Every structure is written in C-alpha cells, then in structure tokens.
Amino acid sequence: MNRSDEDCVYRCKLKWFNESKGFGFLVPEGNPEQDAFVHVSALQKHGITYLGKDAQIECTIKQTENGLFVDKILRVLCEGDMEAHKVKIPLPPEAGEVYELYGRVKWFRADKGYGFVAGQDGMKDIFVHQTCLRRNGVEEDDFKKGTTVIMQVRDVDQGREAVEVRLTTEADDCAAQSFEADSAKAGSGQ
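The chain above was modelled as a monomer; its predicted structure follows.
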C-alpha cells in the first residue's frame, strides 16, 4: 500500500478489537502482512455497536507515518461469528441517551436492508437496519408489518434509530396494552 492508495476502498477482516482501550486492527484483503489501525470512533460513526470474530468491513484506509489507519467505514459486509467472540462497541457520548420503547413495524424491505417502526409514543418513526435485527437474533421474515417489538432507541441527527430490537412475548404484549390504556386515559383527562 502506498500514498496513491489513500482513497481506495478495501475489504478487511477484523483481527482483534480491545473494547476497554477503544481500538483494534483490521487486515486488508490480499495484504495479510499489514494491519490497519481502527479507532472506536470510526465504528461509532457508522453506527456499529457489535462485531463478531472475523467480521468483514469495507472501508477506506490511509497511509500515515505510523502505518495504516482506517479512515472511514463504508459498510459491514459480514458481522462475523457473534457466538465465538462478540465485541461490544460503546455508543459515542454524543449519541444521546438510549431508552426503551414499544412499537409496531410499519415496513421492512430486506432488499434495501432497513425499515421503520412506529413508536408507541406517537413521535417520529424509528429507523431499523438489518444489522440490528441480525445482531439481536431477529429473523427478517418475522419482522413484518404490524409485528409488535421492544426496542432500545437513541436519538440521532436524522431522527431516531433502534440500537437493539426484539419481538414481544405474550407478557410484553399485555404490558404494552396496559400502557396504551393508561396513555389513552391520561390523554382524555380521566
């Protein structure tokens, strides 16, 4: 890799990542003898919250005086084996507080890789990316219009996004119905 490669896109595999120190290394495809340093902030900017063993990432890499440096994550090609080793990427401090919210799936397009959930609070819809579903063990076929879910949500510049999501159980559905009834009473002044 030389200076002319600075803006090139590389497919890389996660070599390792130290959660407590906030950095790790990726190995560019076809160049296994050189590791590229990746800082937690590059992963956070792309919204990555978990990676598994041998995760594959597409990114731009810059050559610096100290070696290769991951400049920008473009997309996650494969989240890796979460059962073998799951790395939790902390949320950036500026991401805002994460809060729990019930909702119903409005739509999800597997071919696009994302969809939206109408939150129980009636505020702006929540963006859900397919990597969030996979990371939380939710099958895309089960994530269809009208399905009730519980999410961990954060506010972002573009609106709101799900950080974690799971399908509701019968007990969850009862709690949600009770909450809806209480909200309706409060709204009607009873």
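The longest helix spans residues 170-188.
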